[in-house]
């Protein structure tokens, strides 16, 4: 290569950048690309092929002869450079022209669509998002083949330049929520955003809370349902998670599989799930409060069992609970960081061995061991991982409050948490809606999963521009074949 365009010389310092001159009978044609980003078959068959067949092609003739749909003429070097870094091939006539052709030749490398690993379902579809943004958009559009489904693409990160897509339905999604979401993404000033979970934290209403204010899902059916409900779905290239908002607190204890089951079964499972969360948070603090301050409240049926289990324990209930809770968290964290099969072994064997040894060494009571184990097990019923981590951490303020003030301390801590929740919003929507502000018409899809005959209206707190899903009379009417 004897010469290259002046602005391409800096890119040529990278070993994976290829720039060469294609000889013609007229002006020389320079072709540049990053070979680590392009598909060689597209380059040789669709770009170099027309050039090899006719060396007298003009710039316009070459543009028309390349059988690639995504191509354009660029005049700005920043645009050309960004396209090259995304897997485009640049073609220009002469050393210093006023225009350059960029042709899409992005290599389609990545894993294929597989079953969800985190939000596994028995009844639902076995498809999960992958790291390709275009493929994820395909999964959503396949489920919402509606012409008003809009995708607005943005770019975030000075170094990462990650592609972000905001999905919504025009004429259905509330404009205020949509504009808020797009503005927050556009205002993000951070150099490297490698995953959508980083962006998720940056666009939430309050960054100083342990409660998540948006939901991430790996299931396209859940994301499609959210978009059709009037919510906004955000995807990012390189991330197999879709984030949607606005959401309320109740959404974090609902699995989308509830909608695939009969409404009675789905409702019972929801109640079990929410009851498990309450048990996980309050079980250990109540043990401390009762054993430290309110021993007179213990039933005579359980009193001999509790006394006999604690008779040789040298620690007060607070220290006893704290040790067990920290051990449980240690086992959980160790199991999560190790390879899958080893992590499962560590969790099961470690829990049995440590639990048995602790009871035999009289470091803790077997009664408390059962409570802590059930509390840890109950925390796993939370379907959203970010909320599950919040529930795990939320136990510790209640444990300290129970030690300081017994049941009164637990009550004060509960009031403080509720006051904090009252102040939270998701894209401006109150976090505790429909209970605060109270909306009786929207309370049907919260603790109870109603039958589909009740889904004739969209939830009003999403402020959808099309609140009616289907006519109520038509939804409730069932025709027999002889009618």
Automatic annotation (TrEMBL):
A GO biological process held by the record: spore germination
Domain of life from the UniProt record: Bacteria
Listed InterPro entries: Spore_Ger, UPF0353/GerABKA_families
A GO CC term attached to the entry: membrane
Signal peptide segment: none
Presence of the UniProt keyword Transmembrane in the record: yes
PANTHER family, per database record: LEUCINE ZIPPER PROTEIN 4 (PTHR22550:SF5), SPORE GERMINATION PROTEIN (PTHR22550)
Name this polypeptide is given: Spore germination protein
Family under the similarity heading: Belongs to the GerABKA family.
Keyword field: Membrane, Transmembrane, Transmembrane helix
């Amino acid at each position: 290569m004897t010469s290259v365009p002046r602005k391409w010389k800096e890119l040529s310092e990278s070993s994976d950048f290829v720039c060469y001159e294609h000889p013609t009978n007229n002006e020389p044609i320079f072709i540049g690309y990053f070979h680590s980003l392009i598909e060689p078959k597209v380059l040789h068959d669709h770009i170099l092929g027309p050039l090899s067949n006719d060396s007298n092609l003009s710039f316009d003739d070459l543009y028309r002869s390349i059988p690639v749909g995504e191509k354009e003429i660029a005049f700005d070097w920043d645009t050309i450079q960004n396209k090259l870094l995304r897997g485009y091939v640049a073609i220009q006539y002469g050393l210093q022209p006023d225009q350059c052709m960029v042709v899409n030749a992005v290599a389609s490398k990545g894993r294929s669509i597989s079953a969800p690993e985190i939000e596994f379902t028995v009844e639902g579809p076995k498809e999960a998002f992958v790291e390709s943004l275009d493929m994820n958009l395909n999964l959503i559009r396949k489920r919402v083949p509606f012409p008003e489904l809009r995708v607005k693409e943005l770019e975030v990160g000075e170094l990462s330049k990650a592609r972000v897509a905001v999905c919504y339905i025009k004429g259905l999604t509330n404009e205020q929520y949509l504009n808020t979401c797009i503005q927050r993404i556009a205002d993000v000033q951070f150099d490297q955003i490698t995953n959508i979970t980083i962006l998720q934290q940056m666009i939430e209403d309050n960054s100083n809370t342990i409660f998540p204010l948006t939901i991430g899902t790996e299931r396209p059916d859940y994301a499609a349902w959210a978009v059709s409900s009037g919510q906004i779905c955000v995807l990012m290239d390189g991330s197999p998670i879709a984030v949607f908002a606005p959401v309320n607190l109740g959404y974090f204890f609902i699995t989308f599989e509830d909608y695939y089951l009969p409404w009675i079964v789905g409702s019972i499972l929801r109640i079990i799930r929410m009851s498990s969360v309450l048990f996980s948070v309050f079980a250990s603090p109540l043990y401390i409060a009762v054993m430290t301050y309110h021993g007179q409240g213990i039933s005579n049926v359980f009193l001999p069992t509790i006394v006999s289990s604690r008779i040789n324990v040298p620690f007060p209930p607070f220290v006893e609970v704290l040790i067990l809770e920290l051990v449980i968290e240690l086992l959980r964290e160790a199991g999560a960081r190790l390879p899958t099969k080893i992590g499962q072994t560590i969790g099961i064997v470690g829990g049995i061995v440590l639990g048995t040894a602790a009871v035999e060494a009289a470091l803790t009571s077997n009664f408390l061991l059962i409570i802590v184990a059930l509390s840890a097990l109950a925390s796993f019923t939370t379907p959203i991982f970010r909320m599950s981590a919040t529930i795990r951490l939320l136990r510790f303020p209640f444990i300290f409050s129970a030690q300081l003030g017994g049941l009164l301390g637990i009550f004060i801590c509960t009031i403080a948490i509720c006051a904090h929740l009252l102040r939270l919003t998701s894209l401006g929507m109150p976090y505790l809606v429909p209970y605060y502000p109270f909306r009786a018409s929207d309370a049907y899809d919260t603790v109870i999963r109603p039958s589909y005959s009740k889904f004739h209206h969209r939830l009003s707190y999403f402020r959808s521009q099309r609140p009616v899903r289907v006519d109520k009379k038509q939804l409730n009417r069932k025709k027999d074949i002889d009618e």
